[in-house]
Amino acid sequence: MTGRKPIIAANWKMHHDHFAAIQFAQKFSYLLEKTDYDAVDIVICPPFTDLRSLQTTLEADEIPVALGAQNCHWEKDGAFTGEVSPSMLAKLNVRYVIVGHSERREVFGETDEIVNRKVRSVLNHGLIPIVCVGETLEEHEAGATVGKVKGQIAEAFAGVNPDDVVTCVVAYEPIWAIGTGHNATPDDAQETISVIRGAVSNAAGEDAAQAVRIQYGGSVKPGNISALMAMPDIDGALVGGASLDPEDLARIVRF
After folding, report:
1. Is there a catalytic annotation at residue 173?
2. 14, 140, 162, 242 — which has fewest CB within 10 A?
3. Phi and psi at residue 244, to the nearest 5°
């Protein structure tokens, strides 16, 4: 991880209302020391309804945790009922936006083209996309992992300036490991993330590939984070279920 600061991002998905979010932030902050914040970038991505409450709490209590969103639309505004734009998120001091999570792709039908639009829009609004890539169980068993993640990276960063790619975060999330309790072994994760770094090089150049931070996501827990973070190309984690408990997330941050 030479020169790349680790980044741990909590994806709460559709959990925790705004009251629970405030309580979480306050308890979480008591569990960490200044050195923990200095060593790792920490991001919490709550539901949209929690963003304002969490922003207020983090800023009022001077908790150095970045705010993230789980999704956004690619347009600045318009007749898109139920959607939220990057410009709206920026007004709440959101810094990161998860783009192309497997649940958005699998459940809501987001295509590689849509993911690319969102990546470019997030960057254009001064925010940082956490770009998710990963294969299904069927693709994994068929030996199609490499082709799948290479294609997703190429599409996600199509038309994106290499200088902007440097600022991005990529999350490798094998779909078969999300919420199942079955995570890829550290060696397996390292192997695929090395392929992803190579794909970033093809898309944006070797400098961008060496600078971009790549997370692993898929049943990350306090018990497996250390082994994952020991891998040379793994720069952090996108944490789902374990991020709902402040003590578990604190242990993960202190890998």
Report:
1. yes
2. 14
3. -80, -15
Catalytically annotated residue among 16, 73, 101, 140: 101
Q: What would the two tokens of residue 93 be?
A: 């001091």
Neighbours of 43 (CB within 10 A): 25
CATH fourth-level superfamily of 7-253:
Aldolase class I (3.20.20.70)
| CA 215 – CA 234 distance, rounded (Å) | 6
pTM of model > 0.90 = yes
Of residues 110, 135, 155, 173, which has the active-site annotation? 173
Quote the CA–CA distance of 66 and 95 in Å, as a whole number: 6
Tens-binned pLDDT, residue by residue, of the chain (255 aa) = 468 999 999 999 999 999 999 999 999 999 999 999 999 999 999 999 999 999 999 999 999 999 999 999 999 999 999 999 999 999 999 999 999 999 999 999 999 999 999 999 999 999 999 999 999 989 998 999 999 999 999 999 999 999 999 999 999 999 988 777 776 899 999 999 999 999 999 999 999 999 999 999 998 999 999 999 999 999 999 999 999 999 999 999 999
Q: Domain segments of the chain: what residues?
A: 7-253
